[in-house]
Amino acid sequence: MATLESSAVPLHAHHDDLSFIRKYIFATDHKIIGLQFLFATLIFLLIGGVMALMIRWQLGFPGEAMPGVGVINPKFYNALVTMHGTFMIFFAIMPLLVGTFGNFLIPLKIGAPDMAFPRLNMMSFWLFVVSGIVMTASLFVEGGAAGAGWTVYAPLSAVPQYTGVSLGQQLWIISIVFFGGSSLLGSVNYITTVINMRAPGMTLFRMPLSIWGLFVTAIIALLAVPILAAAIIMLLFDQTIGTTFFLPAGGGQPLLWQHLFWFFGHPEVYILILPAMGIVSDIIANGSRKPVFGYHSMVLAIIAIAFLGWIVWGHHMFQSGMNPLLGTSFMISTMAIAIPSAIKVFNWLGTMWRGNLWFHTPMLWAVGFVSLFTVGGLSGIFMASNSVDVFIHDTYFIVAHIHYVLFGGSLFAIFAALYFWFPKMFGRCMNENWGRIHFALTFTFYNLTFFPMHLLGMGGHMRRIYDPTAYEFLQPLQPMNKFITVSAFLLFMAQIPFVINFFWSLFAGEKAELNRWRDNGLEWTVPSPAPHGNFTVTPTVYRGPYEFSSPEVEEDFLPQDVPPDGGRERAPETVGR
Amino acid sequence: MESAEQKQQPRYYFIWFLLLVLTMVEVGVAYLSHLPRTLLILVLVGLAIWKATLVAMYYMHLKFERLRVILLATAPIPLAIILVLGVLLEYAQ
User: Fold this and answer.
1) Could you list the residue range(s) of the whole structural domain that residue A487 is in?
2) Are the Cβ atoms of A326 and B82 closer than 8 angstroms?
3) CB-based contact A111:A541 (threshold 8 Å)
4) Cα–chain center distance at A448
5) CATH number of the domain within which A363 lies
6) Residue A574 within any structural domain of the chain
7) Contacts of A1 in chain B (CB under 8 A)
8) How many domains does chain A have?
9) Nearest by CB: A223 against B79, B89, B93
């Protein structure tokens, strides 16, 4: 197994000579690319958030004109539902976790000077930009944006007449093809970097859990994204050149689309949560000043979740008239995921148990993640039972579940990570008080927005309807819809402290010291912001990443690169174990 | 080692020609033959596997790689089998 040799080569010797365009636009430095992903995805997050408000306005106050937008017509509503899901999943959460933090953290935390393929990395980002531009452009073309849902179920999506959208749907597909290319290039890069470029002594079981999460995610993405690419190209052919892969009229199978989509789609769910789990593990250990409880079981749980993710896709299709034998197998395999997930939750609690808790802002978000992810995980078990799913399939219960996992889970972890690594990214700290206010407001309005959706779902409220008041049995639920809409607007406004804090701190925040959170990771041994090439001398790693409150030292943390016994002991020579 | 690899340079144009011929056979079988539908599908899937194997062996260079790399590249095949089995079971009721 390859390893980096210790050297004193000044890796960033020529970087200062680069032009602005080479340094910041067509950058090959993993940290700059990470920041490019960050700023690009924050824009998409805002677009997705505004779309959510429009959806909520229509559901809370159907047919009334939304201030600044006007009346939302049914076709536009379909486009909103489709594009909100698309932007949030493909252009916000996934690139924030994988693109931003994957790029920024992997080389820094494993002691590498950069990614294995810096130019490939640059291409990955710019393919993502092309993809985002095509998707955004699809909002403005004739016929409007795609309206068949983010799951683009055929035949609805395959025949332009069904949704009234032709070009918009085709642009959606083309955009996702570019996105798939970007994701694949990123995955190849991450896997190669983690396998080949770890610093001496950084064995696999000395890697921080954030890197384990990102590493396993890259493997899943490498295997899952090509399936989506193949399926959507078949869909594009159905749309444009007259094939009938998914059209019953020509002998095609609409359910084949669902199989292909969810064979990608369920692993995709873990792409969206495993890096978050890893990041949260790092931050909870730091905030508890204790080693992660059950480190090895945490790693094995990540791997187990990743594996089980491949044999559960049918639980999205319980209502498709599936063979009962198949349905039962999918039910059992899905419920089995609760085991590694519970291992992780209990280990997070075990890490905090009797810890010397330090509730800095990232820790608050990380603890918020644990509580909300647990709610989302528990509601997932309800849906995994195919008899219960008969009643809650395609209702707001599902919407509540996905938002507890992807907003309360992934996005809370992203906020935790942003507050935690902001000093290393920009050399300045975000304001702690405003961070706490941001957390308190978001946590409150988040729950007020999404928890009642469970009740709506159990009341039979369908998932993608335009006007709930059109159904007599839903009319008693309308006050709850209004309540959720008001909460959603307040949740949106609760992000204003974050936006102000983020941009204010960029330029006027307190200067960051070397090791802002007294952490053990290698990234905290380099200046803030980290220089090009990261390490002047390749670090040597002597221990795992969570040696907090070690009796060996006076301080309550023991960085990975501090030699035992004052440096007399040598590091292992290979890292392949 | 390097010279041994150079000796085993794949014949790219020959493989390309073979792939072209196999594609023409596929089109021919699909449009011109009067095989029963099940047999037709089996023949087409067989030809597709043949082509995929050629691409993997020569254009992905797996024929000239170490066992470890071959195992890595073929590791997703069980996933493909799981997917196909799942879809087939769907229609087996």
Assistant:
1) 15-567
2) no
3) yes
4) 22
5) 1.20.210.10
6) no
7) none
8) 1
9) B79
A70 SS3 class? strand
The CA R_g of chain A, rounded to the nearest whole Å, is 24
Q: Is A123 helix (H, G, I), strand (E, B) or coil?
A: helix
- Domain tally, chain B: 1
**Locate tokens 């204010």: which residue?**
A504
Segment A158-197, tens digit of pLDDT: 999 998 999 999 999 999 999 999 999 999 999 999 999 9
Residue A51 is assigned to a structural domain of this protein: yes
A576 located within any domain: no
Examine residue A573 and state whether it is found in any structural domain, yes or no: no
Please give the structure tokens belonging to residue A272: 């969206």
Residue A90 pLDDT > 80:
yes
B90 touches chain A (CB under 8 A): yes
pLDDT band per the 50, 70, 90 thresholds, residue B93? low
B82 touches chain A (CB under 8 A): yes
Domain of residue B86 covers 2-90
CA torsion, ordered A458, A459, A461, A467, to nearest 10 deg: -160
The partner residue sitting opposite B89, judged by closest CB among A223, A256, A323, is: A323
Does residue A326 sit at the B interface (CB-CB below 8 Å)? yes
The answer to whether A322 contacts B90, with C-beta atoms less than 8 Å apart, is yes
Contact status of A310 with chain B (Cβ, < 8 Å): yes
**Which tens digits make up the pLDDT trace of B66-92?**
998 888 888 888 888 888 888 888 776
Backbone φ and ψ of A120, nearest 5°: -60, -35
* Cβ within 8 Å, pair A259-B89: no
- Determine whether the interchain pair B86/A314 forms a contact, defined as Cβ–Cβ distance below 8 Å: yes
Contacts of A325 in chain B (CB under 8 A): 89
